[in-house]
Amino acid sequence: MLHGRGRGGAALDPADAAAVVGLLADQDAAGTSMPYDRRAGRATEHDALYGAVLRVAARHGVPTPTTRTIAALLAAGEPTSRA
Description:
Blueprint: E1 2-4, E2 10-12, H1 14-25, H2 27-30, H3 33-39, H4 46-60, H5 65-76
Antiparallel strand pairs: 1-2
Helix pairs in contact: 4-5
C-alpha cells in the first residue's frame, strides 16, 4: 500500500517493499522472456521491442545508433528458420 507524503510523492509500505525485493532476488521470477526464449532456442520478440523504436525514430529522423546496434546483435542471434 502506498502512503501519501504530500508534495514528496508516495512511500512504499515496508512490507510491500520487502516483497518486491524478495521477488527481484529470485531471478526466475524477475526475468524477462527474451533470455528465456534465447536459451530455449526460440525466436525472441526483439523486433516488436527494438524494431518498433527504430521504425518510429526513422519516421521522425531521430538517429538511434545504440538501439540499432542492439537490434542487429539480437537479430544475428535469432534461430534460423527451417522451411
